[in-house]
Amino acid sequence: MMRFGAGLAVELLEAPEAVRRQAYSLESPLAALIARLVRRAPDVVVTCARGSSAHAATFAKHLIERHLGIPVAAAAPNIATIYRRRLRLKDQLFLAVSQSGVSDDLVEATIMARTAGALTAALVNDPESPLASACEIILPMTAGSELSVAATKTFVASLAALLRMTALWTGDDAVAHSCDRLPERLAHAAELDWTEALRPLASASSLVAIGRGPTLAIAREAALKLKETCALHAEAFSSAEFRHGPIALVSSTYPVMIFPPTDESAAGMSGLVADLRRKGACVLLAGAGGTEKNKRKEAGRLPALAPEQAEADAICLIQTFYAFLVRLAERRGTDIDSPAHLQKVTRTR
Fold first, then answer.
1. 280: which DSSP letter?
2. Three-state SS at 150
3. Which of 18, 43, 55 has its CA nearest to residue 161?
4. SS3 of residue 72 by DSSP
5. How far apart are CA 308 and CA 280, in angstroms?
6. How far is residue 173 CA from its own chain's centroid?
């Protein structure tokens, strides 16, 4: 009999090898995509995704705007499926992200974008899916089979593929090297111990997850997974947006899980952490923030890998969080592999 939570627990440990395979499976399609983008640079990139894949699209927005200076916007698929309105996308990049590649709204929106003259690319785990067939260029995640309802391995693979795309598009050797190092670092990230967060979250009824820059997508994904697998209500905000209203909710019974970035966007995090602690919040801080002298003394500090490259560091953070999630779900008594009311493939229109 499969151990409680064994499906997701096993699959998250398969993520490093999935990312390693991408170096070969993505080489040809990424080269074809980047050749098109270099030949005619888009003025805008439009992403199209749902669920965890939408968080991967948030990561893509950060990467492309940060490293290439090209605006990125998220498409609303119902503009195509419900309102039948074609967007003006001639010569722009339309990037669809999906694990299954079967959701009708993503497929229809992509077909309409291609008809409008967009360059369409699908980052997908099933290269034979309808979404893949609708696109000119297929970028396989190469995550392999993922049976647990909550996507972990495919999410990590999505982020890694987007980082590879950015490295090739920009020609940035530092980003490319971080991709090469990622499988090994992911394996180490899954071994880090977040026991410090078990007690406050085992009894919590709600929490907030905070990130910024490359970790905003990580905070959003963490909040979704807490809802899906632990029946724990969670909301995600950027550290800046959190100050514009939601900070009024802070109390000792409302944990705040912070995913600090390791680049210049972390500048305001230490001030926010200090402010939250003054307000009596239960702060769970992953890695960065504070000085080396006081790191061991601070309650709620969660270990993270030593920083190397900001976006790769963010991917490692979600891998550590996934490993923690298995233990938290067991503590809260929820079935992490088959959450209530959910199924592996969700089809919307």
1. T
2. coil
3. 18
4. strand
5. 32
6. 23
For residue 266, which of 317, 326, 226 has the smallest C-alpha distance? 317
Paired tokens of 306: 């030593």
Alpha helices in 192-344 (DSSP H): 198-202, 216-230, 239-242, 269-278, 292-295, 310-332
Residue 280, Ramachandran bin (φ over 0: left; ψ between -120 and 50: alpha; else beta): left
* Closest listed residue to residue 314, CA positions, set 237, 261, 270: 261
What are 64's two structure tokens? 């492309």
Type of residue at 107: V
Instruction: Identify which has the larger pLDDT, 251 or 221.
Output: 221
Q: Look at strands 93-98 and 119-124 and give their pairing.
A: parallel
The pTM of this model reads: 0.92
Tokens linked to 188: 């180490």
Residue whose tokens read 């724990």:
232
Question: In whole angstroms, what is the distance from residue 93 CA to residue 111 CA?
Answer: 13
Which of 75, 149, 60, 85 shows the shortest CA–CA distance to 106?
75
| Nearest in space to 294 (alpha carbons), one of 273, 315, 275 | 273
**Rounded Cα gap, residues 192 and 186, in angstroms:** 10
Q: What is the pLDDT of residues 33-85, one digit of tens each?
A: 999 999 999 999 999 999 999 999 999 999 999 999 999 999 998 998 889 99
Report how far residue 110's alpha carbon sits from residue 213's, in angstroms, rounded to the nearest whole number: 27
- Give the C-alpha separation, 254 to 207, whole Å: 5
Length of the chain as a residue count: 349
Mean pLDDT value of segment 158-165? 98
Cα–Cα distance measured from residue 214 to residue 63, given in angstroms and rounded to the nearest whole number: 8
